[in-house]
């Protein structure tokens, strides 16, 4: 990628897209194009085709998706499957039609079978049943992977797919119900501290294990893969380390300096028991994460505290809390 190449970051206001834009700007890229969802609804085929014909980007980071935590995925499966299929179909096909040089499609670790052996290798894809709480989202993402592979096979397109683990960091969604576990807990503990509440309720048993990666590391990995990875086979992006939800709640309690108790609500779903990615493939290429989990979380918490109003009230009101397109 040359510094003046035209690069389209789809989903630039979301967690990953915004981190990719920050990174590209820092590296001196001068021709980054973005569109807000008001300007360009990526679910609208006509609008997307017109946009690509007008702009002719050379590189595309496809980080636009409807994303959310376990509750949102369970509650809005139709939105998750429809919006994600529509976004992917439109962006991938328009990229082919307008001769995009290279595209990176972002998937998710939830594409793998619920009971996959751990750590999860890339070739475990489609070897077992999906976790039911997010199967609609996972099926959409699997379709996106297969689409990139099909366009590679039939048309020779350089469309690659990366599967990041659970990400956190600046620009996350802090909605109490729709968010993923780390931003939801950061907010719950913060508000419990401010309101001197006696306890914070954590969903599920606390036993599931999850792997976390700071979004700036994920953006570095995406940039690295755009430069260095050519295979249509999927590639994992992760830290290679996982923790129980109970451990994460304890770490967040410490970071937020909350003094009360942690209570587990076992009526809420646990989801997949464990989701740890095998990162041998990307490690062998020479990429590794740089940000330690506790440091990354402390930094994320200070950013959240500083921007509390923007992260909470605005999103809570706008009902845009689960769409990052
Ligand atoms: P998942 O990785 O697809 O299961 O998505 P999440 O990040 O939403 O949830 C991860 C785990 O954290 C699940 O076992 C949840 O039950 C648990 N969890 C505990 N408290 C919360 C919370 O306040 N919000 C969310 N989203 N998950 C929570």
Main attributes?
single chain, 325 residues, alpha/beta, Rossmann fold, 6-stranded parallel sheet, 4-stranded mixed sheet, 11 helices, 44% helix, globular, binds guanosine-5'-diphosphate
**What is the CATH topology?**
Rossmann fold
In CATH, what is the class? Alpha Beta
Bound ligands: guanosine-5'-diphosphate
Largest pleated sheet: 6 strands, parallel
Assign the CATH architecture.
3-Layer(aba) Sandwich
As a percent range, the share of helical residues equals: 40-55%
Radius of gyration, in angstroms, nearest whole number: 19 Å
Could you walk me through the main structural features you see in this protein, from its secondary elements to its overall organization?
Mean pLDDT is 95; it is low at 317-322. The chain has eleven helices and 14 strands. The chain is globular and about 60 Å long. The protein has one domain: 3-Layer(aba) Sandwich (Rossmann fold), CATH 3.40.50.720. β1 (7-10), α1 and β2 (32-33) form a beta-alpha-beta unit. The strands form four sheets. It has a six-stranded parallel sheet, sandwiched between helices. Strands 7, 9, 11 and 13 form a four-stranded mixed sheet that branches. A two-stranded antiparallel sheet has the order 4-14. With 325 residues, it is an alpha/beta fold. The two termini are 24 Å apart. It binds guanosine-5'-diphosphate.
């Amino acid at each position: 990628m040359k510094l003046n190449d035209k690069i389209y970051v789809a989903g630039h206001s979301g967690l990953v897209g915004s981190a990719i834009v920050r990174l590209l700007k820092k590296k001196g890229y001068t021709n980054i194009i973005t569109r807000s969802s008001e300007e360009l609804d990526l679910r609208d085929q006509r609008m997307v085709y017109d946009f690509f014909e007008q702009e002719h980007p050379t590189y595309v980071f496809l980080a636009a998706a409807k994303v959310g935590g376990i509750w949102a995925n369970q509650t809005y499966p139709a939105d998750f499957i429809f919006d994600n299929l529509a976004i992917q179909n439109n962006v991938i096909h328009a990229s082919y039609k307008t001769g995009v040089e290279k595209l990176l499609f972002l998937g998710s670790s939830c594409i793998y079978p619920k009971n996959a052996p751990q750590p999860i290798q890339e070739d475990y894809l489609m070897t077992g049943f999906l976790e039911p709480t997010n199967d609609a989202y996972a099926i959409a993402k699997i379709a996106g992977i297969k689409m990139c592979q099909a366009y590679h096979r039939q048309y020779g397109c350089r469309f690659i797919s990366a599967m990041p683990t659970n990400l956190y960091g600046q620009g996350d969604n802090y909605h109490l119900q729709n968010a993923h576990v780390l931003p939801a807990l950061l907010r719950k503990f913060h508000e419990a501290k401010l309101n001197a509440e006696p306890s914070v309720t954590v969903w599920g048993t606390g036993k599931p294990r999850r792997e976390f990666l700071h979004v700036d590391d994920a953006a570095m990995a995406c940039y690295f893969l755009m430069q260095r990875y050519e295979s249509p086979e999927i590639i994992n992006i992760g830290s290679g380390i996982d923790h129980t939800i109970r451990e994460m709640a304890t770490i967040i309690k410490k970071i937020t300096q909350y003094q009360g108790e942690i209570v587990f609500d076992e009526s809420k779903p646990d989801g997949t028991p464990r989701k740890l990615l095998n990162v041998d493939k990307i490690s062998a290429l020479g990429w590794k994460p740089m940000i330690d989990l506790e440091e990354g979380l402390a930094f994320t918490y200070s950013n959240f505290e500083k921007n509390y109003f923007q992260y909470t009230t605005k999103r809570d009101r706008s009902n845009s809390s689960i769409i990052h397109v």
